[in-house]
């Protein structure tokens, strides 16, 4: 380019329809068809259909404009599918009797179509059923809305997406749309994820693709942006000058529970850390977006992922609980980790030198998911209370949703002694009677509304896999071995040693107890 000349580059086409135009620009007047592919499977039964029922019960899916279609290879009738999912729609018996009429009316909205995932015959029948529903609702061709939820293994995504593209799309655009929701895992490494993205991307535009990560639908995860950017006192504190380390933790107190064969194919890093914990990491570490438009938020998430330095072996501990290989579906020589602790480091102005510790494991001594932000020591400690522990801001994602600030206060009494206590916002106590929606409810509703804020964009997915792929390949090749640990323990002792090496200071003698009503 010659001096004095300017060039204008066309920006990437990775745009959400909610970003490029206001959602209300084109009125959505047509009926809505929700198609659950893999309708006879566990995910659909336990998560997708219950989420759809709760949206229906709350008035977000009016019976006069919505119909639900199940599609799978299993040859069953409409009534058999309804009977399969009936018992999963409501949590407990008391609520079941309360919502019995709603359950019956909801089940009447469901129709089942049987067919394979790689031939057109079944999808032609599915399209015929959808079209008949649209005609019965007096929807003009092209104004109807079609949402395809792929509750399926990723191996069949390409063939299913091809069948949807060839057989089940809207015929024109008069305010209608076709969108697809795909579940994790999105590939096994960078190469497979990019291949899958390319295969789907050749059939659908990015604004039509909703890569769902249910952690992005959790109440306190969605609260992170509000906490960080709507509260003045966090703004000057949220950086390397004040924060010593950040932990993002996922712990389960049970093993693979019959899913050993599936889990062994992926392991704890692919199953939990590369997606769920990394999404939380992005929201904790990202810069303030220009606005709340989905693309502005996702742009900032990509930037922070691209700032992560390569993970070093010295800052990774892998574990496998004893007894894991006793599962008949798990190979005797499995090298798959059921536990991992690792340190991510961000090379930017805000976070240089701050360790982000991601930790996930199965068969541990407790069940919880939380974010723990530990602040630096107070300089010039005149109270000599450093040994009691540092200030911490903890966000408990599950169970017992809460956020609390751990701080040092004066012990009540005549002596000038200090003790650790907390400022506590426990949701169960503060928001009594408020039902916190399930993550899948929020995300399905976002999909219907065309809001991609809480979904993973293609370049974001690529940046995430770039962080973990080199390490995963070494684990797959047997070069990186997990350390055995006892079920019901904290995990390998080496993981605690890594935390200490990273600078985390554990508080002794203080335990947060969720308040009772």
Automatic annotation (TrEMBL):
Top-level taxon: Eukaryota
GO biological process, one term: pentose-phosphate shunt, oxidative branch
Residue ranges of the TM segments: none
Keywords for this protein: Carbohydrate metabolism, Cytoplasm, Glucose metabolism, NADP, Oxidoreductase
GO molecular function: glucose-6-phosphate dehydrogenase activity; NADP binding
GO cellular component term, pick one: cytosol
PANTHER family from the UniProt entry: GLUCOSE-6-PHOSPHATE 1-DEHYDROGENASE, GLUCOSE-6-PHOSPHATE 1-DEHYDROGENASE G6PD
Protein name according to UniProt: Glucose-6-phosphate 1-dehydrogenase
Species of provenance: Eucalyptus grandis (Flooded gum)
